[in-house]
Design a protein that fits this description.
By secondary structure, the protein is α+β, with helices and mostly antiparallel strands. The protein contains 8 helices and 11 strands. The strands form 3 sheets. Strands 1, 2, 8, 9, 10 and 11 form a 6-stranded mixed beta sheet that branches. Strands 3-4-5 form a 3-stranded antiparallel beta sheet, with no helix packed on it. A two-stranded antiparallel ribbon has the order 6-7. About 5% of the residues have low confidence.
Length: about 325
């Protein structure tokens, strides 16, 4: 059973009047930019992952783990879109079948009413009632046929994307992107204010992937026995922020005992039979920026955890604390 735990991270002051939130913000922008580049190279230009790994590591100073984090986050979004597209196709096919059935039924009713109207004299009291009913059915049919055409167009577009292996993704959300065309209705003073929010949305998260054979399950972000979360700084920012950003005294008000159990290593063996220190699970951190706070989440299996997933979500950059949810 997977459990979720959460706590708050403080905004830690660093050297040269810098803070931990400043690094998180800059690295999220850097990570978001690389994620979009990787998507273009992988899914539009169709370049293999192995070639891109060498290219990105050399050009942007990424470690293998950092590139894997980038790739896994991007592939997760793509996978989500592909699964949603399958559901959308099923839903549109169901709607189309319903509309076709409804149109056939109403068309039959309209034809029967027309035959009655042709047999009834226009001076008859029932004529006006039947004519009004016929007019309403005709209007309803017109609207349903318009709806059917729209559904058919959407369905054809989705099926065409499937055949052509086209993936439509909007980093930052399509909803927010379209808000720039109606600034007043969406309570924006000007386009610059919208763009600021748009950039925050596009650069709002990054992933840190770990492995069972690494210290505390993750070499890039370690939560040690002293409850210190050490986040390794990307090579691109080492000259500015140093090699690590440390968050001391990170405590979880609930689930701390299960998290502490996952920190204890055990001795195992590699495929070649050599002794190797392992941890019960790999840990993956996801830092997410939102408007209210910084959050880190952690899911944990209470018995013999195999997969440990830590999500860190941070919001308001200028507040002294950030919430942490941890998945293990």
């Amino acid at each position: 059973m997977i459990q979720t735990y959460q706590t708050n991270l403080s905004n830690i002051p660093l050297d040269h009047n810098l803070t931990s939130d400043m690094y998180l913000s800059e690295y999220a922008c850097f990570f978001g930019m690389l994620e979009r580049k990787l998507f273009v190279q992988s899914y539009i230009k169709r370049i293999s992952t192995s070639c891109l790994k060498k290219k990105f590591s050399k050009q942007f100073g990424l470690t293998a783990r950092q590139f894997n984090s980038l790739r896994i986050q991007m592939e997760g979004k793509v996978s989500s879109i592909l699964e949603k597209r399958k559901y959308d196709i099923q839903e549109l096919e169901s709607k189309m079948a319903y509309l076709q059935k409804f149109i056939f039924k109403k068309t039959t009713q309209k034809d029967k009413l027309l035959q009655k109207l042709l047999r009834i004299p226009q001076t008859s009291p029932a004529f006006s009632k039947l004519r009004k009913k016929h007019k309403n059915i005709k209007f309803c049919l017109h609207q349903k046929k318009r709806r059917l055409r729209n559904v058919q167009h959407k369905l054809e577009k989705l099926k065409s994307d499937v055949l052509n292996h086209k993936i439509r993704i909007c980093f930052g959300s399509r909803k927010l992107f379209h808000q720039q065309f109606n600034l007043k209705e969406n309570k924006y003073k000007n386009h610059g204010e919208w763009k600021e929010e748009w950039l925050k949305s596009r650069n709002s998260q990054f992933l840190v992937v770990g492995s069972r054979d690494e210290t505390y399950g993750n070499q890039s972000a370690t939560y040690d026995l002293q409850n210190v979360l050490n986040l390794r700084v990307a090579n691109y920012f080492i000259s500015k922020y140093g090699k690590y950003v440390r968050f001391p005294e990170v405590q979880f008000p609930y689930g701390q005992e299960f998290i502490d159990q996952a920190k204890v290593p055990y001795m195992g063996y590699t495929r070649n039979g050599k002794p190797q220190k392992y941890y019960y699970s790999s840990i993956t951190y996801r830092f997410i920026k939102t408007e209210k706070r910084v959050v880190c989440e952690r899911n944990c299996r209470k018995r013999n955890p195999k997969n440990k997933y830590i999500q860190s979500e941070w919001v308001n950059w200028h507040r002294p604390q950030c919430r942490i949810f941890v998945y293990m």
